[in-house]
Design brief:
mainly alpha; Arc Repressor Mutant, subunit A; 2 domains; 7 helices; DUF2637 domain-containing protein
Length: 203
């Protein structure tokens, strides 16, 4: 519940902005399409296509960053698609404007706000999660690699094993991947050796 409240306070205003701006841009595109012969459901379909193209391109751009598929420059296919969708939306907004400076500015506002909201949501989605950040090593240096580690030692305390299992299950449920030794060590505040033993036990 606390996490949901924090998400609503942090991301909720951006989502509301995206919905309102998207609705305004959608209306302008639909009206422009209807004014130029695309009446009925077709005007709605055109508006949906343009707005969803912007959202899809932004998500694809974010996916390219995560997978390392982005080119060295800033130009890529998702960027070109996003730019084309924004230009179409902006053109439709301006077509519905009163031909004055303020008419053009106010008519262009939904498209600009929609783009800003999408970019903010994309920026937050691509932020590094705390679990993805490498955890600093323990102040106590690890034993030299040439010294063989003890394969079997005293069995960890059963209560500690149960707690470690709950921590590992929560991590897998939240992040979709098994917990690492360093992450388990940081959560439990134990040594590297004990974290390794616990991780081997819970797996």
């Amino acid at each position: 519940m606390r996490r949901l409240t924090r998400w609503l306070l942090d991301t909720g205003p951006i989502v509301v902005l995206a919905l309102i701006a998207g609705a305004g841009s959608f209306t302008h595109i639909r009206d422009t399409a209807a004014d130029h012969g695309q009446t009925g459901w077709m005007s709605w379909a055109i508006a949906v296509c343009i707005d969803l193209t912007c959202v899809m391109a932004a998500r694809e751009r974010q996916r390219d960053k995560k997978t390392g598929r982005s080119p060295r420059g800033w130009i890529s296919w998702p960027v070109l698609v996003l730019a084309g969708g924004v230009l179409l939306s902006l053109a439709a907004n301006l077509a519905q404007a009163v031909p004055t400076a303020w008419g053009w500015i106010t008519a262009a506002t939904p498209a600009a706000a929609f783009l800003v909201a999408i970019s903010m949501l994309e920026r937050r989605s691509s932020a590094t999660r705390p679990e993805d950040v490498s955890i600093p090593s323990s102040p106590v240096p690890d034993r030299p690699a040439l010294v063989p580690e003890v394969e079997e030692g005293p069995a960890p305390d059963p209560a500690l094993v149960d707690y470690a299992r709950r921590v590992a299950d929560e991590h897998t449920t939240q992040y979709g991947k098994p917990i690492t030794r360093d992450a388990l060590r940081a959560r439990l505040g134990v040594s590297n050796q004990l974290a390794s033993d616990l991780l081997r036990t819970v797996r």
